[in-house]
Amino acid sequence: MTKISLPTHSKASILMLTLWALCLMSVFAVIVGAGIRQKMALVRRLSEREKAFLLCESGVNKAITQIRLRGEAGFKALKESWSNNPAAFKGINCGDGECNICYNYWDDISEGYQTRYGIIDEERKININTADTQVLARLFLAVLGIDEAGALELAEAVVDWRDEDQGGGGSSRGAENFYYAGLTFSYQAKDSDFQVLDELLLVKGFTPEIFARVRDYLTVYGYGKVNVNTASKPVLLALGLREELVQKILDYRRGEDGIEATEDDTIFESQGGIVSDLSAFYRLGEAEVALLSNVSALYFDTSSSYFMIKASADIGSRKRLLEAMCVVDSEGRKLYWQES
Description:
elongated; single chain; two-stranded antiparallel ribbon
């Protein structure tokens, strides 16, 4: 058999072509592999998110069950099982994941944020659709620590956003359509009630930082009454009570151990008995009695009907993979859902 001998330069060319082909195939394999890895990671993330969503949904449904079981017993105070119940709301296990129903609150005694495992009642907050300018201004003053002029400007902007007139209430501090029309991305004032609190981010003066600080004290649910058994110190101050009187209400609620949301808490049972109940524990001056009587008649109730459920999902070592917030009424009907 005759052997065919290729010239040296031909062998070199074939070798080069082979090497180029191998390089191209390697690059192609790397690209395909990277694409597959990205798709697998996406599928894994979607799977984890779906699992996290189901965990949050299960936690919210368990909280709704607690609300329905309480039924006619009512929802009055922070010591009750719907409000402070780690056994029911902490570490709800499901497979390799768990859900927590909890929220952070400012503790006046420790002067720091604490975590409570339970449900938040919306009537502990100021209703942004019914509160007048002075109530809102006092709230912003207490929560934000700004001066009175700044607090009043924010309050008037809120009222101007929701009212139907375009006159600015006779004040240059408010903001009607003429203000919003002058923005780079212009829009009009709503001139009707807030439907969700996030609308505040559209209102003059409300930066994301300010919104984050005030949102836990405001609500769009209920009829404007505040539950005196659950309201926080800034809310009580916003309603026009003096700080000394607010402290007496808080101390009365905390009971003998001085800690809120424990079994020995004292409850105001009825709106009409608030003044007499507090007077039985503390000597109230005539001015305090008159002020408390007026605020009670205008703003106070002693029970709640709307609730916010905050659920977070943990899967394995990944904490708070998903957070969900749901608002329900006392019959457990879902009125609002938000995920983050």
